[in-house]
UniProtKB/TrEMBL annotation:
It comes from Sporosarcina soli. This is Acetyl-coenzyme A carboxylase carboxyl transferase subunit alpha. HAMAP family: AcetylCoA_CT_alpha (MF_00823). Pathway: Lipid metabolism; malonyl-CoA biosynthesis; malonyl-CoA from acetyl-CoA: step 1/1. The keyword Repeat does not apply. Its EC number is 2.1.3.15. Gene3D superfamilies: 2-enoyl-CoA Hydratase, Chain A, domain 1. The keyword Lyase does not apply. Belongs to the AccA family. It is found in: Cytoplasm. Residues 38-292 form the CoA carboxyltransferase C-terminal domain.
C-alpha cells in the first residue's frame, strides 16, 4: 500500500469507507447504492476542494509520490520502437540516467531522462535517481549523437540532485554537469525538457538547458531541496514547509517568473492517479514544441536557447 500524504488523509478515509460499503453490498443482500453514491459525490467535492487549493509543500509531496510515473513509464506510453543505449564510453553505465532513440509521431527522436525506482530494490539499483558523472556523460554522448543525425532531443527531469558522494566527486561530478550545460547551450537541434517530478539543483539543470521547458502541474524545480534550504537558512530541516513557500519552486511560480514555458496540467490528485491520460497531456506539449522548433535552423535554435536563459531573472539598479 502506498504511503499516504498528510493532506490526503480525509480523501483516503472516505475512499476506504466507500470500498467497505461496496464490499458489504457484494457479500450481503443489502442495497446501499444510495449511500455509496452520496459518499462518491462527497469524495469528488472533497478532492476538488483539497487538490484545487494545494500549498507548495503539498506539491512537493505529490512530486515525490512513490507511485508517480517515471521516465521509463512515459517512454513506454509515448514513443514507438524505443531502443535503450547504455554507457558513457569512458567509465560505465549509470542506471540513474536512461536514454536511447525512438520515434514520436513517426519522427525519430532521442529521449533522455532521470530514472528513479518505485521500491527499495529498484531505488538501490537506480541510486534513488541521483546520477553519477558517467550518467551525465552518457546523456551528453546521446545528445551529440542526436545532433549528428538531426534528431530532436526530449529530456525528462526527475531527480533530487546529482549524487554528492566521494566516488562521484573523484570521477568529476562538477565537470560533467558543467560540460553538459555548455554543450547543451550549443546544440543545433531542438531540445525539449519536461520536469515530471522533482527537479533538484545542478543534477536537474544538466538536462535542462532547453529551447522549451515544461513542468507537470505538481512538479518542483529548485536549486536545493526545501529540507536543504531550511537546514542552511534556519539550521532546522523541520522548517521545510516554510522553505518550500519562500523558495517559489512550484510550476505556477516558475511560469510567472519566466523560467519555464508551459505548465502541463495533471490528473486530479496527481499524475499517479492516471498515468495513461497524463502521458497524453505530455504528448500534446511535446507535439506543440516540435512543431514550433522544427521550423528553426541550427543557428536559430542556438540563439533561441541563448535568449531564453538571458531573459530569466529580474534585475534592478
Amino acid at each position: 500500500m502506498s504511503k499516504t500524504m498528510g493532506f490526503e488523509v480525509p480523501i483516503v478515509k472516505l475512499r476506504e469507507k466507500i470500498q467497505e460499503l461496496e464490499e458489504f453490498t457484494k457479500t450481503n443482500s443489502v442495497d446501499l447504492s444510495d449511500e455509496i453514491n452520496t459518499l462518491k459525490k462527497r469524495l469528488k467535492n472533497l478532492e476538488e476542494e483539497i487538490y484545487g487549493n494545494m500549498e507548495p509543500w503539498d506539491r512537493v509531496q505529490v512530486a515525490r509520490h512513490q507511485e508517480r510515473p517515471t521516465t521509463l513509464d512515459y517512454i513506454q506510453a509515448l514513443f514507438d520502437d524505443f531502443i535503450q543505449l547504455h554507457g558513457d564510453r569512458a567509465y560505465g553505465d549509470d542506471a540513474a540516467i536512461v536514454g536511447g532513440i525512438g520515434s514520436f509521431d513517426a519522427t525519430p527522436v532521442t529521449i533522455i531522462g532521470h530514472q528513479r525506482g518505485k521500491d527499495t530494490k529498484e531505488n538501490v539499483k537506480r541510486n534513488f535517481g541521483m546520477p553519477h558523472p558517467e550518467g551525465y556523460r552518457k546523456a551528453l554522448r546521446l545528445m551529440k549523437q542526436a545532433e549528428k543525425f538531426g534528431r530532436p532531443i526530449i529530456c525528462f527531469i526527475d531527480t533530487k540532485g546529482a549524487y554528492p558522494g566521494k566516488a562521484a566527486e573523484e570521477r568529476g561530478q562538477s565537470e560533467a554537469i558543467a560540460r553538459n550545460l555548455v554543450e547543451m547551450a550549443n546544440l543545433r537541434v531542438p531540445v525539449i525538457s519536461i520536469v515530471i517530478g522533482e527537479g533538484g539543483s545542478g543534477g536537474a539543470l544538466a538536462l535542462g538547458v532547453a529551447n522549451h521547458i515544461h513542468m507537470l502541474e505538481h512538479s518542483t524545480y529548485s536549486v536545493i531541496s526545501p529540507e536543504g534550504a531550511a537546514s542552511i537558512l534556519w539550521k532546522d530541516a523541520s522548517l521545510a514547509k516554510q522553505a518550500a513557500e519562500a523558495m517559489r519552486i512550484t510550476a505556477p511560480d516558475l511560469k510567472e517568473m519566466g523560467m519555464i514555458d508551459e505548465i502541463i496540467p495533471e490528473i486530479l490528485g496527481g499524475a499517479h492517479r492516471d498515468p495513461a491520460t497524463q502521458a497524453t497531456y505530455i504528448g500534446q506539449a511535446i507535439r506543440s514544441s516540435l512543431e514550433t522548433l522544427g521550423a528553426m535552423d541550427g543557428d536559430a535554435l542556438v540563439e533561441d536557447r541563448y535568449e531564453k536563459f538571458r531573459r530569466i531573472g529580474v534585475f534592478s539598479e
